[in-house]
Amino acid sequence: MSLTSSLQSLNLSSSFLHGSASLSLLSKPDSSLSHQPFKTPTFLPPIRAMKYMQGKVVCATNDKTVSVEVVRLAPHPKYKRRVRKKKKFQAHDPDNQFQVGDFVQLEKSRPISKTKAFIAVPIPSKKGKQEKEETGELGIPLESKQPEEQQA
Description:
Order of helices and strands: HEEEEEHH
Strand content: 25-35%
C-alpha cells in the first residue's frame, strides 16, 4: 500500500502527457541556421506519373475512335523475368487519320466518353535516324550513294 500511496502523491501533470506540448520541443536541439524551411527548387518541372504512351493501332472501324494496343515489359511475379504485357486503350481520333498498323502516341486528356480518356497523336519523326542511314555511321556517304564519276 505504501507503493500506491507514493505513486498517487507524485505530481505527474506534464504538458507532454496531456498533448499540449508542441512537437518542436521534442526535436533534437540544433543551430538556428537549420530552422529555415526547405524550399523546392523552382527550375525543376513538376513530377507526373505518366506523360504519354506509345502503341499500335489494332482497330480503326469506329468513327473518331481508334483502339491502340500498348505493350510494356514487367517482371514476372515468381520468376522475375521481364514479360511483355499488352493492354488495349480506346483513343480519340478526330480526323479519322489513323489506319490499322500505325504507331501512335497516346496523350492523357479529360474523359471524352465512358472508355475514352486519351487522344491519339502521330509520333514525331526522328530526322537524325534517317540521315544516319543515308550516310554511314562515320558520316561518310556510302559507296552506293556516291556519284558514278568517282567510282570509275
